[in-house]
Inverse folding.
């Protein structure tokens, strides 16, 4: 006899959790390989170090290796890559960013040749190419917004000309999407898609990327252009503006610490929404997994599901290839 008269539950939600088959029938969210974009770092200098100490499993590839990697990803069913260029020389005006024969432009050609069906995204920014490490042109110690637009537009056009399907402006200059859309259209690239890093936060989660790209600003920080992590409404304004300026897809970045921003954006806007699970998010998981403290695959599956549940359509993640492998690949098609 029990001490209390405990009523039987009126509702039994556990009924739908009895087996994996039943759970799968009522599952609300999935994170498929077809939603993922793999970032690739491509180095111009073949003698530069390949390994990135803070990002185990990710390497700085040569242009040829980028092609091979793209082919492998495509074979595993990963639909897209986003390319970041690591030029052998940097200068104040980021000439390597918009050079026809620049490292990213060459990488785009290499990937297109090796994996014709893969969708190619190119990051449009100046910070990997400037000697001062800022995302725009520096004038009198400040980042000159309008002077940067011309260079960003030239960068995007050169990437489209090399064969990029999508350009992804990430410099957080005001008016960058409008500038790039106008330049692309005038150059005859009206079908080139713009994925705008719309709500890009000034985040410590980019640390490992900046090690990989040697792109930390040599003075100051990025807080005069990347947005304050404390503000949600401002993210929605950024997204609204980028859509007005002609963005086809808008992005929130980083992902895991900004799921509320993704959710709010999903509720307010009908455009496709991307999330970037950035370098620091990858490194945190890798580091804990290497120590045996967490189950890497389970953590990655759970976080990707959470990012999708929050509202993302596509996810840029350094784990894309791992996920494709864990799921058993998809030997093309
Ligand atoms: C270029 C750019 C950065 C990232 C994507 N594009 C670096 C930055 O803004 O400092 C970060 C991506 C990552 O951390 O994985 N501006």
């Amino acid at each position: 006899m029990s001490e209390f008269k405990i009523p039987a539950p009126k509702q039994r939600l556990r009924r739908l959790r009895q087996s994996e088959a039943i759970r799968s029938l009522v599952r609300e969210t999935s994170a498929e390989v077809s939603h993922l974009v793999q970032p690739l770092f491509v180095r111009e200098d073949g003698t530069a170090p390949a390994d990135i100490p803070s990002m185990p499993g990710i390497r700085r590839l040569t242009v040829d290796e980028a092609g091979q990697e793209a082919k492998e990803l495509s074979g595993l069913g990963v639909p897209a890559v986003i390319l970041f260029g690591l030029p052998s020389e940097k200068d104040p005006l980021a000439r390597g960013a918009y050079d026809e024969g620049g490292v990213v432009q060459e990488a785009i050609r290499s990937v297109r040749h090796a994996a014709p069906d893969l969708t190619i995204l190119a990051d449009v920014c100046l910070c990997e190419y400037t000697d001062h490490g800022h995302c725009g042109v520096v004038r009198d110690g400040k980042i000159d917004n309008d002077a940067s637009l011309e260079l960003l537009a030239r960068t995007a056009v050169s990437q489209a000309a090399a064969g990029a399907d999508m350009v992804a402006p990430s410099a957080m200059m005001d008016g960058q999407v409008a500038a790039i859309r106008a330049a692309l259209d005038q150059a005859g690239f009206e079908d080139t898609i713009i994925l705008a890093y719309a709500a890009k936060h000034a985040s410590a989660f980019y640390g490992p990327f900046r090690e990989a790209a040697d792109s930390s600003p040599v003075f100051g920080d990025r807080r005069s252009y990347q947005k304050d992590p404390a503000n949600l409404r401002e993210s929605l304004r950024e997204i609204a503006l980028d859509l007005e300026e002609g963005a086809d897809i808008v992005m929130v970045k980083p992902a895991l610490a900004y799921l509320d921003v993704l959710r709010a954006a999903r509720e307010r806007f009908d455009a496709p929404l991307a999330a970037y699970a950035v370098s620091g998010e990858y490194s945190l998981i890798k580091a804990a997994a290497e120590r045996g403290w967490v189950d890497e695959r389970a953590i990655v599956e759970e976080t990707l599901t959470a990012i999708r549940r929050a509202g993302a359509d596509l996810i840029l993640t350094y784990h894309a290839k791992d996920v494709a492998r864990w799921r058993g690949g998809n030997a093309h098609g």
Observations:
- The CA atoms of residues 102 and 137 lie 19 Å apart.
- Residues 145-162 form the longest helix (18 residues).
